[in-house]
């Protein structure tokens, strides 16, 4: 297992480095907004989302003990429900989500293997926002969860010099930092879980594992986040925040390590959803800061141009396709297909939530 951990982490860091999106002309960096949004308020209600029905996503430490318990019980429910997709390796409803994530990192389009269409591409952030919504929808509709969704304030803990100080990292909740000799998780709500999807592209039985790496925490600080939020265009912001090997997104995965460092199968760790709700919050805060120009700003290649070039694939005369607001987001029938435009505003009607801070 220790060899597998090393391979998975190396694959994560090498992949994000190799897949980094090349620079584009500035003229390609912004899409024209379809509508203006109200910048006089921190809320951007539209359609059916109102102050009366908006849901609040709470940082884990702001959850009441009863809310924490209910959240983890709902997550365990997904582990116990049968799979409902035909994706590879699935054995439960939770594994439907995990296999979906892996499937999107290994795609063939019109007979061409294009590899990953949810990382290192312009649709990274909106796809993962929709993926977080898919996770929430399953918790609520199939496991009866009625409480708040949660997130982990990683910058707060990185700044304090104790990255795993939150009580989510205890034997009562997501599992402590105590691991067995193979780095298997042996306490918490998901102790002694047997994984069936992964590592990487395999379907094998192995323990649910982590491999904490504190050398990555330096890239998770609020100073690093601020370095990224200073950018005014989406392309520069999302490369800094989620794509580069030293980005807060990549560093968060690598710091938890183990399954979280497996770019294909990382969603097998329930902490993945705490991490990506945090990433989604960072995007939303960046959008809020200048909603008129940022709310509908989307850009970047929709295919991994670097990977395709390495394989000798020649770009069409018009270039590889770009990510636009009309790009279709899919979730293997877990949820209906939608467009990026539907999720850029988390209070726009299709989505309806906010963060507690």
Automatic annotation (TrEMBL):
Domain of life: Eukaryota
Keyword field: Copper, Metal-binding, Signal
Keyword Oxidoreductase included in the entry's annotation: no
Organism: Botrytis galanthina
Protein name: Tyrosinase copper-binding domain-containing protein
Domain Tyrosinase copper-binding: 119-136, 269-280
SUPFAM superfamilies found in the cross-reference section: Di-copper centre-containing domain
Range of residues in the leader sequence: 1-18
One Gene Ontology term of the molecular function aspect: metal ion binding
Entry's transmembrane regions: none
């Amino acid at each position: 297992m220790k060899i597998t951990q090393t391979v998975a982490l190396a694959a994560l860091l090498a992949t994000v480095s190799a897949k980094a999106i090349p620079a584009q002309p500035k003229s390609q960096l912004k899409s024209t907004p379809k509508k203006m949004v109200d910048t006089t308020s921190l809320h951007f209600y539209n359609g059916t989302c109102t102050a009366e029905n908006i849901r609040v996503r709470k940082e884990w430490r702001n959850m009441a003990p009863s809310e924490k318990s209910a959240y983890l019980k709902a997550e365990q429910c997904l582990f116990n429900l049968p799979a409902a997709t035909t994706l590879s390796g699935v054995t439960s409803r939770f594994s439907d989500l995990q296999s979906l994530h892996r499937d999107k990192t290994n795609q063939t389009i019109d007979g061409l293997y294009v590899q990953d269409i949810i990382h290192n591409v312009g649709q990274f952030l909106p796809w993962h926002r929709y993926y977080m919504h898919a996770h929430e929808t399953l918790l609520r509709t199939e496991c009866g969860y009625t409480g708040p969704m949660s997130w982990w304030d990683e910058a707060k803990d990185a700044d304090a010099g104790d990255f795993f100080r939150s009580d989510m990292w205890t034997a009562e909740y997501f599992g402590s930092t105590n691991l067995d000799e193979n780095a298997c998780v042996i306490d918490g709500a998901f102790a002694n879980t047997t994984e069936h999807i992964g590592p990487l592209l395999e379907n094998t039985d192995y323990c649910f594992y982590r491999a904490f790496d504190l050398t990555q925490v330096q890239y998770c600080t609020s100073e690093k986040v601020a370095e990224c939020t200073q950018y005014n265009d989406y392309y520069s912001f999302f490369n800094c925040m989620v794509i580069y090997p030293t980005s807060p997104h990549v560093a968060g995965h690598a710091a938890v390590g183990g399954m979280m460092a497996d770019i294909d199968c990382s969603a097998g760790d329930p902490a993945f959803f705490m991490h990506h709700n945090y990433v989604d919050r960072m995007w939303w805060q960046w959008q809020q800061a200048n909603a008129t120009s940022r709310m509908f700003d989307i850009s970047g290649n929709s295919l991994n141009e670097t990977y395709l070039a390495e394989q000798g694939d020649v770009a069409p005369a018009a270039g590889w396709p770009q990510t636009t607001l009309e790009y279709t987001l899919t979730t293997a029938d877990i949820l209906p297909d939608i467009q990026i435009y539907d999720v850029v505003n988390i209070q726009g009607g299709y989505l309806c939530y906010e963060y507690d801070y």
